[in-house]
Input
Amino acid sequence: MPADGGIGASTKRREDVRFLTGQGNYTDDINIHNQAHVFFLRSDMAHGKINGIDTAAAEKMPGVIRIFTSKDFEGVGGIPCGWQVTDRFGEPMQEPKHPVLAEGFVRHVGEPIAAVVAETLQQARDAAEAIELDIEELPPVVDMAAALEEGAPKVHEDLSSNLCFDWGFVEENREAVDEAIRNAPHVTTLELRNQRLVANPMEPRVAIGVYDRADDEHTLYTTSQNPHVIRLLMGAFVLGIPEHKLRVVSPDVGGGFGTKIFHYQEEAFCTFAAKAVNRPVKWRSSRSEAFMSDAQGRDHVTKIELALDEEGKFLAIRTNTLANMGAYLSTFAPSVPTWLHGTLMAGNYTTPLIYVNVKAVFTNTVPVDAYRGAGRPEATFQLERVIDKAARELGIDPIELRRRNFITEFPYETPVALTYDTGDYHATMDKLEELADLKGFEARAAESKKRGKLRGLGVNCYIEACGIAPSNLVGQLGARAGLYESATVRVNATGSITVMTGSHSHGQGHETAFPQVIADMIGIDPEQVEIVHGDTAKGPMGMGTYGSRSLAVGGSAMVRAAEKVINKARKIAAHLMEASEADIELKDGRFTVKGTDKSVAWGDVTLAAYVPHNYPLEELEPGLEETAFYDPSNFTYPAGAYACEVEVDPETGKVDVCSFHAVDDFGNIVNPMIVSGQVHGGLGQGIGQALLENCVYDDDGQLLSASYMDYAMPRADDLPFYSVDHSCQTPCTHNPLGVKGCGEAGAIGSPPTIVNAVVDALQRAGHDVTHIDMPLTPARVWAAMQG
Amino acid sequence: MYEVIITRPRSLAEAIEALGDDNATALAGGQTLIPTMKQRLAAPEVLVSLSGIDELSGVTIGDGEITIGAATTHAEVAREVAGACPALAALAGGIGDPAVRNRGTIGGSLANNDPAADYPAAVLACDATIITNDREIRSDEFFDGLFSTALLEGEIITAVRFPMPERAAYAKFDQPASRFALTGVFVAAGGGVVRVAVTGAGEDGVFRWDAAEQALMKDFSPSAIEGLSPDPSGMIGDLHGTPEYRAHLVGVMTKRAVEAALG
Ligand SMILES: Cc1cc2nc3c(=O)[nH]c(=O)nc-3n(C[C@H](O)[C@H](O)[C@H](O)COP(=O)(O)OP(=O)(O)OC[C@H]3O[C@@H](n4cnc5c(N)ncnc54)[C@H](O)[C@@H]3O)c2cc1C
Output
């Protein structure tokens, strides 16, 4: 570990001092003088027609300032969708309006119908109870297959059906894939469900709208992963506020996991209402509200077929998925089951022919969108499960089967439109076999058996595509936003540095890791570098943090801006030392003239930039501040191999995870401790999905898992001590840091590992079980054992 | 939560008087009542706190019996009866998390009679007596279906008296989300009698499992339970388990409790 705290140092996270001592500045910690509070009256019905909303009695309640319904939003835009998918017939997806407050109909439990702004939250809530709703209950559709049936009730009257789109990828391959599967010596088929999840960041969503009448300026404080994106979407599409009159601030954010990417009605409401009532308006989600208003994750029903030859070479993959959109299209919802899912179906393997069909379906449920991994976990899960099943059917060791099909030459063009720049899948698998002591498994299984437990081993690989880009390509695919990142590197006169990044940290430790990069480039103490993010008034237009993109894209922008700074500083140094610029070297915070002992310190050069007395003013502007926008030329491709061992209690079906080994290739690593932490968190969420978490609606569209009484979050004692390794490194070939991204890997790679291990345990014990749908609750595992 | 007035009586008599008000409700640890009020599912106008009343709190270990004041917290019970009745101590120590155990009380738990709560199984299996401000109620008469008991309006539990069993154990299988009992079985044996009480599984709340009691009175051993489970009809079916699964778990947990009771 470098002693200087540069790249490669496991520097402790500087932000943790404030987080762990209660000094974080979260949105809910912000209180604006004279603020009012809003309470949203939400639908308790999954589907209904609004015949009337009578607010007369409520308006007379103490403390009420104003009550809003959809009538107040006439002329205001709907919440926009940021991605338009084109279906396999070349038609655009069906895109219903998503009103700020329910318009004419309610379409899911939790949809806001009216908003009460009052002096206190308590008063707002009291008044909301006095609102009289006349809503006629309509039959809801909850199940996706049922929603697609002829004559099913429609979620949106004005759409032709509940089908949002029917997407084929790669459509030209469709027949070739059918043919290959028809003629294959062996086809393994698996039907499965990737269940719906609630993201559950520790900090619930909060929004505060502020309006400054004197300057006609709006400010929104919000728990967002990407304040600039919110400013663009809300300003341009919903409220019609130009950027220079709208500031969006996302201060400390307590976890996002995707669900804080999106633009939500509550943000638009608070911004709008602040002007309407001329008071700051604050909303804080309760945990119960979060369960029915934060966009939810996953919810795919899939059938995958894998065709193999006699030697186990993969010949073709065909997969059909129903993807639940919920009642409305959340910001990036259409991209998740399509471009973030279909493109990953090659996995780490050389399968030459792949066809992915996805039907996206509207149902009377909370909207679904990206959640840690977003599409990639769904791809990885089905692929790694079907491979495991195929291995058992063919009697080939699951690791051996994978190895026979590994991609070994790079760059590699997959049949699903990606070009993997680099990787070494055998190396990660070798490392895994060593770390996980796979040879010792039989002895451990025998020991478990003595205690009456069934031990199983699960192994799988994963690949993901991070740092989604380049912008012109994603534009062709339907993105309505660019996917670059920005950074301004502002060198202060005495040499300290402020970096304004468009990336947003909500637990990732940017304030620690980003300075390590700058410190390394210049050779100064990382303490000299400060990171500023999360405020549209402070930094250049940035795209925020999701899809494991911060270091790969945001870090690259920062490197580019720092390079510009260093180039300019080198010119100044050359002037100061009366040397040729070509001879100037920067090392350990000093510029030296090659081959001489002449040198000048970083701080002297920066001071000269701002006190330009001895300065080449004819050639060079004073000052030392540069901005860069970085648009990557490709995705990055982290990949890895995971193994776990589980014990199943044959009497109760309870699964204990005994060990979990994760070997990841993230390319170069800036802060190994932070990377391990990211993997730990991802594994916790992946194991949570595999064993515990399940968002369930009943046939009436009522949310059954609406609190922690029924929604099982993983706790520390549900999880083993992890062993993680990131020593296998094939640096990314196309970004300046050679980094790939590590935020989602754990959540992508781990669910199939657990399920593979449980199926292995049961099969070893003689049970004819080939698959169990997640979560593998004791009840489900026990039922599977009963046959 | 709606606005509410809290009173803090210093004696049982004061508390009873305060509870004479129709709109008053007893507040013990608040671990059930406060969340319910926050969700606005309960709206008492006056809360009468029982936590400052000395005579309602504490554990007395007597000759062959243990008396626990109604306002005694789960944590105190876990600590105080560890020697006298390890099964009861383990049950109390397995409720919720440390915050819940340091606030929640035995009286609150029994008065609430949640179908997945732990204490009702101990009370019913040990044939404990519920002592109120007014009378004594045998365990078999106390529990009265989901969230319902023999307590009358304004009547409060003051203590619970447990006869000390010769052998006892509680086996709990956690509901994965709440970690209340998906199925919990308390087995108590003493004076030739075996009682088996099941919580978490029955549609009507805690119940005694006669077949297992009969089998165990003949042969107090795990093998006596082998292959035995109650009829799934009458068992709870929900997100976390079917009636069949719960019926099966009743058998497994009973067997495990017997194993544990035998040490
Ligand atoms: C996170 C969490 C986890 C939990 N896990 C478990 C678990 O694993 N197992 C389990 O069994 N329980 C569990 N509980 C419930 C807990 O045990 C509560 O303490 C108990 O249900 C109620 O006790 P209380 O003292 O908090 O009562 P309160 O909430 O104060 O009162 C509950 C009800 O009882 C009434 N009441 C209180 N005291 C008396 C009295 N002396 N006489 C008459 N009526 C009275 C009140 O008026 C109220 O109606 C959990 C609770 C939480 C919040």
User: Anything to note?
Assistant: Chain B has two domains: 5-163, 167-262. The mean pLDDT of chain B is 97. Residues B 25-33, 50, 70, 95-96, 100, 103-105, 107-109, 111-112, 114, 117-119, 151, 156-157, 179-180 surround flavin-adenine dinucleotide (CB under 6 Å).
